Amino acid sequence: xxxxxxxxWKDKLNGEFEKAYFKNLVxxxxxxxxxxxxxxxxxQIFSAFDHCGFEDVKVVIIGQDPYHGPGQGNGxxxxxxxxxxxxxxxxxxFKEIRNDLGTEIPESGKLERWADQGVLLLNATLTVRANSxxxxxxxxxxxxxxxxxxxxxxxxxxLVFILWGAYAQKKGEVIDxxxxxxxxxxxxxxxxxxxxxxxxxPFSRTNDYLKSKGLDTISW
Length: 220
Fold this sequence. Notes:
The chain is of the alpha/beta class. Helices cover 37% and strands 11% of the residues. A four-stranded parallel β-sheet has the order 3-2-5-6. It has a two-stranded antiparallel ribbon with strand order 1-4. Helix 7 (165-171) links the parallel strand 5 (160-164) and strand 6 (181-185). The protein is globular and about 45 Å long. It starts with 6 loop residues before the first helix and ends in an 8-residue tail after the last helix. The model has no long low-confidence stretch (mean pLDDT 96).
């Protein structure tokens, strides 16, 4: 089956693409794009992988659903296109970066600049129906992204996995904590950020770990 994903990932995930669940998922997604407005646009479904090759991954941030409003979702978790108002979770992420690192809050909510440095911005579910959060959950995406996380855990070492909230932490149970750094905290959403996200310093902790392993740090 021809899945349009970066070659560095395609080689590693070919077996997954041939499984029955993934073929069923592809059929479902194709029908959804024909009959509904789906985010992100079809060419951006695998943006997280296109901007961050397998060999380049240093950090993994796990989200849940893509944003489901017009122009928001671009295939990178927590990221929005330029010109789109920043969602509350992203605003809180930027506040924590400012408090953690002392840097100014950036104008742009488009996080390609992180992905291009080796941050895999992975949603658990890679597509969603417009204005219908969770509409593509339990269709196969979660099995696929679980396989991606396990692949990274098994085949690489010294990665940083940033798990915000109970959902991401559950998804991260397959990660080998002996080989990788796992940073857990509350989710950055306004409903949870005051319960342990603010002050958790994930960005400086990530860079301290990367530096300790002789790796380039991330310019957040």
